[in-house]
């Protein structure tokens, strides 16, 4: 497995793989890899001839008040996980390599990036889109793999790829969960033992919403009210950023639940901001 730190070397590696007739799979990450990330590497390995994992804690998607400095960094364990799951190359650039002095360009997806998480994190999706667009140019892959846990991110990146004509298929893989339902996330490490015991209420609230919609298609406001009630009862330390029932393509709030919907929520437990979602595609 190659470990590559410069854009020029990464491009040369991709060109070599392409010249050998290989299909390229890209797995963009910020490191601190867990079983969810590993599932993306496995999916890329199954679908593509040559798998490239990127590990880069992207500063442009963090607001000044957010956890850039504290974000978990475990490079040795990350490389071991990549090697163990068959990655062919890992791209680990420094900040100056990705954002040289004088850079003036960023990429934003209007509307989609301003809803849900974007309401409280107004710089976040601009930073995500900018770095992913750069990675799509540096590593021109056939397929790029992202996790369903970051549902809004997948919607935004799909729109960006379509709008900017990137010749890459964005593949969304299922959320990987702990045994008690908590979606795996690098930020779960921030939870205290008491908060960790409350954290499964996030997925429990989603299950409440799913059951209500499957049973009787009630108005979205009733689903949201019931989910908030479950969170209040089972995660009393939690601070709800949002609970929403939205159109899975546009992320617009919906009033009725008779068609395809996404149920999404964000809850703060201490230092951890937990996000999760369920997409109900058919009734």
Describe it.
- This protein is 39% helix and 19% strand.
- The chain is an alpha/beta fold and 283 residues long.
- The chain folds into two domains: 2-173, HUPs (Rossmann fold), CATH 3.40.50.620; 186-280, Pantoate-beta-alanine ligase, C-terminal domain (Pantoate--beta-alanine Ligase, Chain: A,domain 2), CATH 3.30.1300.10.
- The strands form two sheets. It has a six-stranded parallel beta sheet, sandwiched between helices. Strands 7-8-9 form a three-stranded antiparallel beta sheet, covered by helices on one side.
- Helix 3 (75-84) links the parallel strand 3 and strand 4.
- It is globular, with a radius of gyration of 19 Å.
List keywords for this structure.
283 residues, alpha/beta, Rossmann fold, Pantoate--beta-alanine Ligase, Chain: A,domain 2, 2 domains, 6-stranded parallel sheet, 3-stranded antiparallel sheet, 10 helices
Topology:
Blueprint lengths: L1 E3 L2 H13 L4 E6 L5 H13 L2 E6 L19 H10 L4 E3 L3 H4 L18 H4 L3 H15 L4 E5 L3 H13 L5 E5 L19 H6 L2 H16 L3 H15 L4 E8 L14 E9 L2 E9 L3
Parallel strand pairs: 1-4, 2-3, 2-5, 3-4, 5-6
Antiparallel strand pairs: 7-8, 8-9
Helix pairs in contact: 6-7, 9-10
Average predicted local confidence, pLDDT: 97
* SS elements, strand count: 9
Distance between the termini: 45 Å
For CATH, the homologous superfamily of the largest domain is named as HUPs
Helical content, roughly? 25-40%
Structural Rg: 19 Å
């Amino acid at each position: 497995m190659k470990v590559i730190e410069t854009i020029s070397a990464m491009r040369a590696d991709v060109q070599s793989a392409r010249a050998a007739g290989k299909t390229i799979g890209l797995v963009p990450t910020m490191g601190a890899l867990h079983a969810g990330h590993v599932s993306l590497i496995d999916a890329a390995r199954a679908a593509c001839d040559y798998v490239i994992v990127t590990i880069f804690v992207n500063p442009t998607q963090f607001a000044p008040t957010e956890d850039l400095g504290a974000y978990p960094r475990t490079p040795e364990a990350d490389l071991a996980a990549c090697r163990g799951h068959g990655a062919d190359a890992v791209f680990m650039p420094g900040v100056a390599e990705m954002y040289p002095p004088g850079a003036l360009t960023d990429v934003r997806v209007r509307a989609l990036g301003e809803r849900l998480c974007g309401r409280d994190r107004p710089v976040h999706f601009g930073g995500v889109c900018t770095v992913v667009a750069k990675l799509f140019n540096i590593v021109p892959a056939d397929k790029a793999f992202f996790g369903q846990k970051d549902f809004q991110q997948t919607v935004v990146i799909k729109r960006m790829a379509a709008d900017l004509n990137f010749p890459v298929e964005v593949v969304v893989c299922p959320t990987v969960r702990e045994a008690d339902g908590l979606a795996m996330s690098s930020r779960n490490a921030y939870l205290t033992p008491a908060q960790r015991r409350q954290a499964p209420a996030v997925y429990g609230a989603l299950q409440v919403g799913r059951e209500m919609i499957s049973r009787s298609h009630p108005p979205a406001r009733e689903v949201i009210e019931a989910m908030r009630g479950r969170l209040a009862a089972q995660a009393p330390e939690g601070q709800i950023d949002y609970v929403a029932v939205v159109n899975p393509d546009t992320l617009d709030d919906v009033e009725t639940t008779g068609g395809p919907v996404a149920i999404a929520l964000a809850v703060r437990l201490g230092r951890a901001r937990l996000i999760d979602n369920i997409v109900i595609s058919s009734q």
